[in-house]
Amino acid sequence: MTTTAESPETTTAAAALSPWHGVADAAERAHWEAVAAEVGARLGTDALERDRANLDPHAELNLLREAGLINLLHPAEFGGGGAHWSTALHVVRVLARTDASVAQVLAYHYINASNIVFSAAPEAQEAWFRASIEGNWVWGDSVNPVDPALEVVREGDGYRLNGLKRFSTGASVGDVVLLNARITAGEDADRFLYAVLDHDREGVEYLGDWNALGQRLSASGSVRFNNVRVEAADVLGLDSPEAFASLLTPGIQLAFGNLYLGIAEGALAQGTQILRNRPNAWFLSGADTYRHDPFVQRTVGEFVAQIEAADALAERVGIHFDRAADRGGDLTWEERGELAIAVAKLKVVTDAVALEVTHRIFEVTGSSSANQRVGLDLHWRNVRTHSLHDPVDYKKLEVGAHHINGEFQPVSLYT
């Protein structure tokens, strides 16, 4: 993918300075929450039908473009939204209430595009940002670190790429595809290359094999690279030894926490609407309607309390991430580790809350809500599918090992 400036040297580390300063204020949050709520309402009108069609979300992403959500995190000085991470991931949460698949694509887009900061040389970043903003690019990815089947070898001033990557979220619908591949030979052998390819690059094949229980519109199918030429201008950079560059992992895990929390909120909202419309009551309850049944009220009370507790934690961790992103190259590994633990706590909590709420909401909505035309199962299918992304037990381990022994897990694209 050619930008308007020369390609960065691939040996350059991530930028010492961050484009994200301070923390989000109330005005910023309120503005983008309102925008996301409007888009989410539009997506919610036919989310179930689109889920059943299982088609890539091209039209849905156009809604995000039109609303300004695609460029929300990009610096205002280059024409972007100039928002903070806590705001961007709150937007993901709002969208997940009605369409968790599209919310996932947007979350991955934010992480993928942030590689402009985390991987590209400082002098090249403006050109990348301007190209992305002016093109309104959605950034898909082909990164999956547990599927290291890509082979990239040096060829002249560029590279030659071959192999297969599964679970390439957003790749088939993105304007560009971020790839991550280990270099197999030469002076940079065993380092990871980050490069950006335009969607229609010769030799890139989208297999369209995503057919999961949930998150069906997340465009997470496999991509095959058949002798693909990676030009020097396509290269963002190589993996960096800086703590700041490694914010990608707590960033994506924080996105997951917000995704799951949004799904739980969506299930509770839909379930509450169904419950309020239920006639009569269980004959032993002594109540006139189900909404006045004490056991129903008790169950909903549990859900509300759990979600609001998770909400408070999500807000706190979001601000923590804003402050870490503001640190730029001054971020220490200790600070990065503390952030990762905070994010892991949120992941543990929201995973449990979302699975609990989406599963047990049927206890108060009744047998008729299991009818497929209602679609209440969409929330459970979505969180059940995505929560398998990486085992939550290992997030519990992270938290426990740190609490007992002060240990941090080895840095990776999962920890």
UniProtKB/TrEMBL annotation:
SUPFAM superfamilies according to UniProt: Acyl-CoA dehydrogenase C-terminal domain-like, Acyl-CoA dehydrogenase NM domain-like
Gene Ontology BP term (one): L-leucine catabolic process
InterPro entries in the record: Acyl-CoA_DH_C, Acyl-CoA_Oxase/DH_mid-dom_sf, AcylCo_DH-like_C, AcylCoA_DH/ox_N, AcylCoA_DH/ox_N_sf, AcylCoA_DH/oxidase_NM_dom_sf
Database matches in Pfam families: Acyl-CoA_dh_2, Acyl-CoA_dh_N
Keyword Oxidoreductase found: yes
Span of domain Acyl-CoA dehydrogenase C-terminal: 255-390
Top-level taxon in the UniProt lineage: Bacteria
Keywords per UniProt: Oxidoreductase
Domain called Acyl-CoA dehydrogenase/oxidase N-terminal: residue spans: 29-134
Molecular-function GO terms, alphabetical: 3-methylbutanoyl-CoA dehydrogenase activity; flavin adenine dinucleotide binding
Listed name of the protein: Acyl-CoA dehydrogenase
